[in-house]
TrEMBL record:
Residues 167-193 have a biased composition (Polar residues). Residues 102-132, 158-193 are annotated as: Disordered. It comes from the Eukaryota. It comes from Streblomastix strix. This is Protein kinase domain-containing protein.
């Protein structure tokens, strides 16, 4: 039952409390209230409380720091989500713009194809109308020629009838022999119609003119052009005509020349070395 000596740094009051607490008679030991009211114990308790408070404040500070970090991370996550959403919206906007541009291009292509088709239909319609006009013109020419033939034949028959009445019966055979050459001469004077499909133009410069079916198309209005048809006739009389359309200078001539005449590019017909007889100029 030997008790170790207390260190010197323990106060005498505290030594008395300790000895008092170690009393063998428990009735003489101090109560808890008495112990807690002791200055040293109170100071120790206050020190423990301060340490506990300090520890609690540190924990709260750490918790607050963690909360701030969480909030900052949450804000950063929200910012990243906002940036990702903005990028997604930008990508979607670009995709929609590309789709819109593609649709516009397809509509433009469809419009160009429709315009091209309509233009081709208009060209075909124009060609058809021009062909019909040429057919009507040639039919009218044929009808005019047949009418002339009928008229001349009627006149020839009338002449023969008048000669038969004026001359005696004995000379009727001589009159008939003379009337036959006259009838042949009248019939030969009727201009025959040319076959338009046989007419092939002699064009000096293809870059200025070209032939399209029965048409001669003059492409360059800044240059003169002379187109020949060889041969039209070798002798006698023939009917040859055409239609002159949409010329800015309104200068057009038709004539006849020797088959050996040569016309160069960008020249009027009278520039040829051979004489050219201009029958009509409009």
């Amino acid at each position: 039952n030997k008790v170790s000596e207390l260190p010197d740094w323990v106060s005498n009051q505290m030594k008395e409390v300790i000895k008092w607490m170690m009393n063998q008679n428990e009735n003489h030991r101090p109560t808890t209230k008495m112990i807690l009211s002791h200055d040293t114990v109170l100071m120790y308790l206050r020190s423990c409380e301060d340490r506990e408070q300090s520890k609690k404040e540190k924990i709260e500070a750490l918790n607050e720091r963690d909360l701030l970090i969480q909030e900052r991370n949450g804000l950063q996550s929200d910012n990243e989500r906002a940036l990702a959403e903005r990028d997604r919206e930008s990508i979607e906007k670009d995709r929609l713009q590309i789709e819109l541009n593609r649709e516009r291009i397809e509509k433009d292509q469809q419009k160009r194809r429709a315009d091209s088709t309509q233009s081709e239909l208009d060209k075909q319609k124009t060609k058809t109308n021009e062909s019909q006009e040429l057919v009507r013109a040639f039919q009218q020419l044929i009808e005019t020629t047949q009418s002339d033939n009928t008229r001349l034949t009627t006149e020839n028959q009338n002449l023969k009838a008048e000669h038969s009445k004026l001359r005696p019966q004995t000379t009727q055979s001589n009159l008939q022999s003379k009337a036959e050459p006259q009838h042949q001469q009248i019939q030969q004077s009727v201009p025959p119609s040319l076959n338009p499909n046989m007419l092939i133009g002699i064009i000096p410069a293809k870059e200025h003119d070209y032939q399209d079916g029965l048409k001669i198309i003059h492409k360059n209005n800044q240059c003169e052009s002379t187109v020949a048809f060889n041969p039209i006739i070798s002798n006698g009389i023939v009917r040859f005509g055409g239609f002159f359309e949409r010329h800015s200078l309104c200068s057009f001539s038709i004539g006849i020349t020797d088959s050996s005449a040569v016309f160069s590019s960008n020249e009027f017909p009278w520039n040829s070395e051979k004489d050219c007889l201009l029958l009509e100029e409009v």
